[in-house]
Amino acid sequence: MPKRPGFGLVQIPRYGFEDDLAKGTLIEVLPDFPPMPTPVSVLYPSNRQLSPRVRVFVDWLVEIIGPRFHPQCA
Q: pLDDT per residue over 1-15, tens digit each?
C-alpha cells in the first residue's frame, strides 16, 4: 500500500521520533502548543541491593532519556 499523508495524529515523547521530524517523514501540527512534560520515575526498595538486571535497566534509562530532561545527566 502506498504511503499517504494525513492518517492521524499522535502525542508521544519527542525523543522517539526526532529523526522522522528532521527527515520530514512526520510533521508537527501544533508547534505553538507543546504538551506538558511527563515525569519518569524508577522506584525500587532502598533497603535491598539492586539486581544486576535492574541496575542495567536504570543505567540505560538515565543514559537514554536523562540528558533530554536533566542536562546534568549528560
A: 556 666 778 888 777
Answering whether pTM is above 0.85, one says no
Give the C-alpha separation, 67 to 1, whole Å: 38
Please give the tally of structural domains in the chain: 1
Please provide the DSSP assignment of 3-71 as one string: --S-S------GGGTHHHHHHTSS--S-TTSPPPP--------TTSPPPHHHHHHHHHHHHHHHHHH-G
7 within domain boundaries: no
Query: d(Cα 43, Cα 57) in Å, to the nearest integer?
Result: 12
